[in-house]
Amino acid sequence: QVQLVESGGGLVQAGGSLRLSCAASGRTFSSFAMGWFRQAPGKEREFVAAITRGGVGTYYANSVKGRFTISRDNAKNTVYLQMNSLKPEDTAVYYCAATRRDSNYGHRGIYDYWGQGTQVTVSS
Q: Strand 92-99 to strand 113-114: parallel, antiparallel, or no bridges (unpaired)?
């Protein structure tokens, strides 16, 4: 069992930055690839970014590529999402998730564990 707890959300003006963190319980964090998803009101949960177990491979949705950076610290059991040049359309609840799979990171169905989410609001 893995428990995921997100933090770092908040209210920011357009063009600003936020850094989300996701802390994982347990000793097997390094055996999971990690992903970030987001869900805006009235919309489906969508893929944002993912990182492989060792942190070498990273993947991004086209809408955030060049603005967001995913990283992880396996010694701290934590995955991060650095969000720069934020836009009002980035407003959503952001979720981190963990998967034992090695591919298809953009598909939410492959993830085994989810956090409770953290709200990010970008004002114009």
A: antiparallel
d(CA 4, CA 25): 7
Could you give the CA distance from residue 19 to residue 69 in angstroms, rounded to a whole number? 9
The DSSP call for residue 108 is G
Maximum pairwise Cα distance, the chain: 41
Q: What does 47-91 look like in DSSP terms, one character per residue?
A: EEEEE-TTS--EEE-TTTTTTEEEEEETTTTEEEEEE-S--GGG-
Q: How confident is the model at residue 27 (pLDDT cuts 50, 70, 90)?
A: confident
